[in-house]
Structures are given as structure tokens and as C-alpha cells.
């Protein structure tokens, strides 16, 4: 018996969900950054629920028109047989009004976004690999929060626990792509854990026979390490190139491409002039700052300030990740604070708190390294091109393994105490 394609499944689910205005359905959501891990995990877990429990649909957290910001997502969806119009995918702008769905499953994060948290809303499942926020202990089943290189590996593990289910080749391909992006192709000594290797090994035979314009051929059993498998290497290389192809994006696009936002209750020792809760944002940018600020440093600064105003942010962290000419991983950080009082209590607490975190290994840098000239010093300890009330500081990050997954809890601890 043939397995329905992923595209056919998605095309059938969306109109059914909309016809019921979500009543009786479970919405499966990834995190707001909308990366490939969240996308694949939400689609796959919704597929699993639909075939084992109750009607479910994946809600992608990215507006359909913004899919172009992540070329790796578009490429993986195309490999999974989902066309460029993405008509079978449910995006935020597609949600019915009113949305009568009250059941949510969270993947790749474990705290429901406030926009969806209503008095009658219930989180019925959590599958994640980030820091546990301790929520939904009485309602979520399963509630799986454990280390893995990719959340897609945890979702794959759940699918594997149903041996009678036959996963569509396109869905296996989508999950495999997510795992490879998050683990840098299962690279030895990288982020991949045993679960990631196990999941990828299981998905590989199920995936599409040809994954890259005829370059990749039907896979067979092999004793070669997964990271050395020709299919894995070719697919990982292509996905990595797609992910890094961002030079055409504007600074604003780069800020919102891979962005997460947090509502924090600032402690009084951090800021007595900011009402709580306040917003902080973290944007991951796959470019070095010298490229982010090029060719117009002033325009980039304006874009940062405008983004903070648009989102109502008190704090914005921009985390760069890139590879050197010697193909070594590198990271930088820039922190911008909307300092509403002249006392600069918030910025001083943030900067000193970050610099004290030995795990980050931050080394202060000067903005003039990135094309800025003659801006003068705002205070003796600062040299920043940002205009009041914004205060900024920029760093080299020596610990290149410290991703946003580590930085976010540190930010929360510093600001909330």
C-alpha cells in the first residue's frame, strides 16, 4: 500500500482545519525564529498526531511572504515536494478569525507565545531541546525536554516508536535536512549527539532517492560513518551554502530572519526606570559584523534602532556566527539598550553581567573596527555610533560553541536576577 505524499497530506489538512475554525484540532508550533528545525519538527509532529491521536496541523511561525529570508528552508521544502507557493502550509496570516483552537503542542521550544495563550488554552505536548522553563507539567503528554543537536531528532524518535507507521519519503527528507543543518552535517566533535545519529540513520533509507538535482542516488546500507556518507555530505554542503547565502538581505531582514523575543521582569537592581515586563530580543545573523555594517554603517545602525522601536525592545542582542578564511567557526555579539533614564543602570548591569560570564569568553571590541569613524565617546567606557537613548557595546566571543540556546538563559538571569 502506497503512502500518501507529504504535499497531499498538507493540502488536505489545511482546508479541514479552516472549515472548523480550529475547533477540535491541535495546533503544533515551533519557535518564533522559524528555522528549519522548528519547521520540520512542527510538520512532522502534526503528521504523527494526525495518524495516532487526533486532528492536528502545523502552524508555521513565519509569514508566508517571509519564507524567502531562509533559503535553506525553501530548498528543504522543495526537496520535500512542497512548491514555492507553499499553499498547503498554515501561516499566521491564515488563521481563522476567531481561532477556536484551544489545544497546542510545542516543538523546539517549551513556552507558548503570549499571542496564543488564552484562558481556555491548553498545551497538550512538548518536544524540545532547550532549557526547561518548568511549564505544563500537568497537561503536556508527552513532555520531552532533553539534549539533542536537533529537535527534529526527538520528533523522529517518537515516529520510530510506531513501527506500523510508514513515514512519507518527503517527510523523512525534511527531517533529515533539519538534523543536518543543526548538527553541521553530523560533524564529528560537533553538536550531534547519539540521538541525532540514530535518527539520521533511520531517516536516510526512507528519504527521497534523489535529493539534489540527480547528484545523489538511491542509498544502500553502508558501514561508513554517517558524516562521511556521500549523500549526507552533499546534502549538508548544499544546505549550508543556502543558509549562508544572505548577502542580498538588508540589515532589517537579517535582524528578523532568525529572531526570538522574550518578555522579562527586570529586577529593581537592574532597572528602576523600566516598567515590567519588558521585551528583549535576540537576533542570530550568519555574517560577521564587518559585513553586517557594510556598505553603510550608518544605515545599519538606523535599521537596528528602528527594529527596536518597531518591536518595543528595551534590549537587543545581535549574535553573529560565521567561518573564518581557515574554515574555523567564529562568533561576535553586539548589545543595544534603549536606556530610558540618564543613569544608564540597565546597560551597565547588562554589560557587566555579560562580561562576567566566563562561559561566553567575551572580549570587548571597538566600533571603529567595523567602518565607524569620528563618533566620539559617549562615556569614557563606551565608543558607540548609536544615538541617545540607545547605548551599545560590541564583543568578540571566544567560546564559539555558545549559541543563542546558552545566551538566552544568561540574559534572563542577568536581567531578572
From TrEMBL:
Keywords: Hydrolase, Manganese, Metal-binding. The keyword Iron-sulfur does not apply. Residues 236-415 form the DHHA2 domain. The keyword Transcription does not apply. One of its GO terms (molecular function) is metal ion binding. This is DHHA2 domain-containing protein. Pfam families: DHH, DHHA2. It comes from Paxillus rubicundulus Ve08.2h10. GO terms for cellular component: cytoplasm. Coiled coil: none annotated. Its cofactor is Mn(2+).
